[in-house]
Write a structure and sequence with these properties.
Blueprint lengths: L1 H10 L5 H16 L1 H26 L7 H10 L6 H19 L6 H14 L3 H11 L2 H20 L1 H4 L7 E6 L6 H9 L5 E6 L8 E5 L3 E4 L37 H16 L15 H21 L3 H20 L31 H7 L9 H17 L9 H14 L1 E3 L32 E4 L7 E2 L5 E4 L7 E5 L10 E2 L12 H16 L6 H13 L1 H8 L1
Parallel strand pairs: 7-10
Antiparallel strand pairs: 1-2, 3-9, 4-6, 5-6, 8-9
This protein binds S-adenosylmethionine.
S-adenosylmethionine binds next to helix 10, strand 2, helix 16 and strand 7.
Organism: Hydnum rufescens UP504
GO molecular function: mitochondrion targeting sequence binding; protein transmembrane transporter activity
GO biological process, one term: protein targeting
C-alpha cells in the first residue's frame, strides 16, 4: 500500500469504508455480472483488430518510458462528455489494456497508457486504482501509478497557472513584500520573511468597470433572517411572496427563491444535513425504519437549534462545506444518489468549475478549499458541542460519516471560513440587523466595506478570498443582482499588474462619526478579525493629521 499513500497524500483523498466496499463491489461485478462481462468481451474483439493494426508502432516503443511526454499527449486527447460515451471509452480502454498486457512486457507502456485513459474518465479513480492493483500485472500497474503521480503532482503544482480562469482577468501572484503598495508596507511589518499571495489585475480597468464576477462556494443567510421566509436560503435574494418555495418540516426553516436554488442547495449539502434521505453503507438509498427517521429528525433539530442559538454562521458554513465534500464523494460512487443528485449543468455551481482546458486539469471544491489560508482558532467547549451535533447529523444520514469530522480538520476548515468569508450586502446594506450580543471579541466578522452589521448573509468565494485589505482600496465587492453573485468593481483606474484590494471593514466614517473614531474601530476590527495592524498610507496620514488637528486622535496615538 505504500505506493498508494503517495497518491492519497498528494491528492488529499479521504478514503472511508464504503469506498473500499464499492471497489470490492465493482470488482465482483466485473467478474460475475454477465452483461458487464458480455460488454467487455465485445470490446475485446474490436480491440484485437485495433492491436493488429497498431502492433508495429507499439513494438517500436523506446524502452526508456517518457512518461511526461505520454501524459502530455493523453491530455491533448478529448475526453468524452456524455455518461454513455464515457462508459464506452472506459470499457474500450480497459479492454485494450488487458489485450496489450497479454502480449508481454514489450507492451507494458501502451497497456499502462490504456489503463490510464480509463482512469481519466472513471468517476471514482481511487477505487479503480485499487482494482488495478489486484488485476493488472505489477510492471504495468507501476507505470499506471507513475503516470498518476506525475499527473496529480503537476495538477497540484499547476493550480495557480490555471486558476483563476483567464476570463476573470486576474491572477494570484506571490509578491515581494517590498512592492510599493500600502498593503505591502503593512505586511512587511507583519510577516517579514514571507512572500505574500495577492490578487493582481491582468489588464487595465477604468474606474467603475467590472473586473470579474464570481459565484460563492458556500453561502449562509444571516440567522435573524433564516427561517423567516423573507430571503432565499441559498442565493440570499429577497423574496416576493409568489417566488417562495418552502419545503415542509425543514428543521432550519429554509426557503428558496426558485427550483434551481432549491436543487443546488439540496444536492450540495442540504439533503445530507437537513433532508430525509437515509443511506445504506454502499451509499444507495435505504428504506429507513421509523426509529431511524425519528432519530434523524431529532438530531437535525438539535443542530438547527444550536446554530440559531449560537448566533454564528460559521457552524452552518462549515457543515455545508463538509456536506458538499461528502456529497461529491457519494455522487462518484452512486451517481443517482438521492443525497447528491448532480447539480444541473446550467447552474454556475458545478463542482468542477475551473477546468483548465489547456492541460485537461479540473479543480474541485476540495482543491479550492484546500488552498485557502486559515485563522488559527483555539479549541473551545462550544466547538466540541458543534462537532458532536454535526457528527450526529451526518451519521443519521449514513453510518460512518462522522469520520469526516476530525477535530483538527474541523478547526482548519472553520479557520478558512472565518478568514475568507465575505459579507453579502445589497444596496449599501440593511439597517434592521439586530446588534450582535456578547463581547466584541466573540463576534464573527466578515470582510465587507459596508460593515458586517449591515449584511444579509455570508459567502465564501474561490477567487475573492485572495483579495488583501486596504483602507483606500482599488476595488469593491458589489452584489448588483441582489444575490450572492459577487461583482468586483474598480474604484479607480487600475493598471495591468497592479494589486487589487478591497476594504475588509467600513473605512469611511458614517454620519456623525469622527475620522479618529472610524480609524479606531476599523483598526480594532482588522486586528481582531484578521490579526494584522494596518499601516497603510491612509492610517498613517490620519494619525499624523489627527495629531495636529484632532484632540481625540492625539489621545489615540499616545495609547
Ligand atoms: C483573507 S487573507 C488575504 C489573502 C491572503 N494574502 C492569502 O494568501 O490567502 C487575509 C490576510 O491577508 C493579510 N492582509 C491582507 N491585507 C492586509 C493589510 N492591509 N495589511 C496587513 N496584512 C494584510 C493578513 O495577514 C490577513 O490576515
Amino acid at each position: 500500500m505504500a505506493r498508494f499513500s503517495t497518491v492519497f497524500a498528494i491528492a488529499g483523498f479521504t478514503v472511508f469504508a464504503s469506498l473500499a466496499a464499492y471497489a470490492a463491489y465493482f470488482d465482483y461485478k466485473r467478474r460475475s455480472d454477465p452483461s458487464f462481462r458480455k460488454k467487455l468481451k465485445k470490446q475485446h474483439k474490436r480491440v484485437d483488430k485495433y492491436i493488429k493494426l497498431d502492433a508495429s508502432s507499439s513494438q517500436s516503443q523506446a524502452p526508456a518510458h517518457d512518461l511526461k511526454a505520454a501524459l502530455a499527449q493523453i491530455r491533448l486527447e478529448p475526453v468524452p462528455q456524455t455518461v454513455e460515451a464515457r462508459e464506452k471509452y472506459f470499457l474500450e480502454s480497459v479492454a485494450l489494456g488487458e489485450q496489450l498486457c497479454a502480449r508481454g512486457p514489450l507492451f507494458d507502456l501502451p497497456a499502462a497508457l490504456a489503463f490510464y485513459r480509463a482512469l481519466r474518465v472513471y468517476p471514482a479513480p481511487v477505487e479503480l486504482i485499487m482494482i488495478y492493483q489486484k488485476t493488472v500485472p505489477d510492471a504495468v500497474f507501476k507505470i499506471v501509478m507513475e503516470l498518476t503521480n506525475h499527473d496529480v503532482k503537476e495538477r497540484a503544482e499547476g493550480y495557480y497557472d490555471h486558476w483563476p480562469p483567464a476570463s476573470m482577468n486576474v491572477a494570484v501572484k506571490e509578491l515581494p513584500l517590498k512592492q510599493d503598495s500600502t498593503v505591502a508596507q503593512s505586511l512587511e511589518a507583519h510577516k517579514p520573511d514571507l512572500l505574500r499571495r495577492a490578487l493582481v489585475a491582468k489588464k487595465d480597468f477604468a474606474a467603475g468597470e467590472l473586473i470579474y464576477q464570481e459565484q460563492p462556494m458556500a453561502t449562509a443567510l444571516d440567522l435573524d433572517l433564516e427561517g423567516k421566509g423573507t430571503h432565499c436560503s441559498y442565493c440570499l435574494r429577497k423574496l416576493e411572496a409568489f417566488m417562495s418555495i418552502r419545503p415542509p418540516n425543514d428543521p432550519l426553516g429554509s426557503t428558496f427563491c426558485s427550483k434551481a436554488c432549491q436543487l443546488s442547495c439540496t444536492s450540495q449539502s442540504h439533503n445530507l444535513l437537513f433532508g430525509n434521505a437515509v443511506l445504506a453503507a454502499d451509499a444507495t438509498t435505504k428504506m429507513p425504519i421509523p426509529e431511524d427517521v425519528t432519530k434523524r429528525r431529532d438530531v437535525q433539530i438539535s443542530f438547527a437549534e444550536y446554530i440559531k442559538d449560537s448566533g454564528k454562521l460559521s457552524p452552518l458554513l462549515v457543515a455545508r462545506c463538509v456536506a458538499r465534500m461528502i456529497s461529491n464523494e457519494i455522487v462518484k460512487i452512486v451517481p443517482g444518489s438521492p443525497v447528491s443528485p448532480p447539480p444541473p449543468s446550467d447552474l454556475p455551481e458545478a463542482d468542477t468549475v475551473g477546468s483548465a482546458a489547456s492541460s485537461g486539469a479540473e479543480y474541485t471544491f476540495y482543491d479550492h478549499m484546500e488552498r485557502l489560508r486559515f485563522l488559527e482558532v483555539p479549541p473551545t467547549p462550544a466547538e466540541d458541542t458543534e462537532m458532536e451535533l454535526l457528527r450526529n447529523v451526518l451519521n443519521s444520514a449514513m453510518a460512518g460519516l462522522d469520520d469526516f469530522i476530525q477535530d483538527e480538520r474541523y478547526r482548519v476548515l472553520k479557520g478558512k471560513i472565518l478568514y475568507n468569508a465575505i459579507g453579502v450586502s445589497f444596496g449599501g446594506g440593511r439597517l434592521d440587523k439586530p446588534k450582535s450580543g456578547g463581547r466584541f471579541e466573540k463576534w464573527e466578522l466578515t470582510r465587507t466595506p459596508y460593515g458586517t452589521s449591515r449584511q444579509t448573509g455570508t459567502g465564501v468565494y474561490r477567487v475573492s478570498s485572495y483579495l488583501a485589505h486596504s483602507c483606500t482600496p482599488s476595488a469593491r465587492p458589489s452584489f448588483p443582482k441582489g444575490t450572492a453573485e459577487l461583482h468586483l468593481v474598480a474604484n479607480r483606474p487600475i493598471k495591468a499588474g497592479e494589486e487589487l484590494t478591497i476594504s475588509y471593514v467600513r473605512s469611511t466614517p458614517t454620519e456623525g462619526e469622527s475620522v479618529a473614531e472610524n480609524r479606531r474601530i476599523r483598526r480594532q476590527e482588522l486586528a481582531r478579525g484578521w490579526r494584522f495592524a494596518c499601516e497603510c498610507t491612509k492610517c498613517i496620514a490620519e494619525a499624523t493629521e489627527g495629531a495636529s488637528a484632532d484632540p481625540e486622535t492625539k489621545v489615540l496615538k499616545s495609547k
